[in-house]
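Give me structure tokens for this 287-residue protein.
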Amino acid sequence: MSKTWFITGAGRGFGKEFARTALGRGGNVAATARNTSALDDLVQRFGEAVLPLQLDVTDRDAAFAAVKAAHEKFGHLDVVVNNAGYGLFGMVEEITEQQLRNQLEVNLFGVLHVTQAVLPIMRAQGSGHIIQISTIGGIGAFPNLGGYHASKWALEGMSESLAQEVASFGINVTLIEPGGYSTDWAGSSATHADEIADYKPFRDIVNEQMAQNMSPEMIGDPVAAGHAILRIVDAEQPPLRVLYGTLATQMVPGIYQQRLDEWEQWKPVSLEANGHLTCMLDDGAAR
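Here you go.
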């Protein structure tokens, strides 16, 4: 069951727990962080099984160099976890173009860099598992997070295509979609746009609703998230998507049902837009 992992953003949060879990059962981990001192405790505890690597995932050359170093040390790469990322808070009107570009550079292009670096290795091996840390915000969207959603919806689409492209090489792709967790995602690692006063009443309502939804029992434990990832990487047929946490399992079905209901409601317009003079509805009648 021992595997070699490459984990980005391993200095804290999910990344740290994934690394601890993998190492705890005898795996090797190439752990990346912007500041490798955040990995010192792992090195002290697990020794040579840990390869600490300084990495800013927005640096494409550095990402390729880190992957190469990991492969040279351990000889193979079984599981790659693209975990590095952060949140951008602000209404769409409030976020700057540069803030959005920065968000995409980390949450999307950073993933692209690492993924493209590992794929030649995994293709040569004829095996591998790429795990993308997405979010329920890659499925649905909420106010004040438009820039963040843009990055994660793009990640979801790219990863679903990737899964189809690499399956014949024995490579699996999984999108993990967490709900609320007690990590620093909304804390010091986040970016906040300058607020426009006109949005304050709406923002207050949104914040109140979020507080109600994020009751203690809905907040996931990152340690449990770390252990759960083993169920995914050990599966004979890993899922393309898996929800993480109670909040996700309760919220996501409603998001999809709302879409299905609206699409069905507007189906006559959809068929009308097909462009033919007549089309058949479900009752078989031409309209």
